[in-house]
C-alpha cells in the first residue's frame, strides 16, 4: 500500500516538473513578443515589421514590440535571435539580404541561419528597376546590349556596393547578354542616384519606390524590371525577359518571420498560424501593396523552400560572375 502511494506521488511529481519546465501552447504568450529587425527605423522594412507586429495583439493576445538592431546587412539581428532563449518571445523579421549574404559567403563561420526556423513568408516588395540616364543612346535592353557590344566595358552601372542586390543583378544581366558592364559601387541609394543624375554613370538598378520619382520627373528612363511579370505601378515597362530575351529573374525584397529553431513545436505552430493570418489582413500589408508588392501568406514549409531557392539562385550568379566579398 505504501509503495503504491509512493509510486502515485512520484508520477504526480514528475508530471508537475515536466509541466513547470515546458512552455505550453495554452499559456503562451504571457508577455509581449519582440520582433528583431536588422534595419533602422523609418524604412520600408521597419514599416512593414511594425504593421505586422501590431497585429500580434489581435491574433495572439499579446502585443508585438519591434526591436531595431541594424548592422552587417541584418546579420547582427539574425545572430541575436538565433542565440535567444527559444521560448517564442524573440522572433526575427527575415529579409532578402540573408540569402544574398550567404551567396557571397557560402562558408560563413558560425552561420546563424541553421539556428533559425522559418514561420511564414509574408510577401515581397515591387521589383528592382534598371534605369538609365536620359542621354544614353539606348531606350530598351536590346539597344543597350548593342551599345555595350560596340564598346565593351564602357557602359557603367551603379550599385550599393560589392555584393549588394543590384550588383548581383547587374552582373547577371551582363552574363545573360554576354556583354561586359563596368560596375561602379557606391554606399547606398542616395549617392548612386546622384551619380546617375549627374551623368557619372550610365545605369542604375534601384527598388521600384526609389526609381519612380526619377522616372516621373524625366530624370531617368526605365529599360526593364527584374520581375517575372510587369509591375502594376510601371505597366509600360517590360520585364528583362520580355525586353532582352534573358532568362526570367525575380529580384525584390521579401519579408517573413523566423524563430529560434529549438522553440517548442506547439508554440511554433501558433506563431506560424498567426503569421499566415496576419499576412491576409489588408492593413497589415498595405505598405507592401502600395510599393507594388505581392502578398504570399505562406507557412513554414513553403518559406523554407523559398529561402533555399533564393540562396541557390544568388549563389549561382555569384559563381558565374566571380563575385567575391570585399577584403
Keywords:
327 residues, alpha/beta, D-Maltodextrin-Binding Protein, domain 2, 2 domains, 10 strands, 43% helix, elongated, disordered N terminus
Commentary on this structure:
With 327 residues, the chain is α/β, with parallel strands linked by helices. The chain folds into two domains: 28-125 and 251-321, Bordetella uptake gene, domain 1 (D-Maltodextrin-Binding Protein, domain 2), CATH 3.40.190.150; 127-244, D-Maltodextrin-Binding Protein, domain 2 (3-Layer(aba) Sandwich), CATH 3.40.190.10. Helix content is 43%, strand content 20%. The radius of gyration is 23 Å and the shape is elongated. It starts with a helix and ends in a 6-residue tail after the last helix.
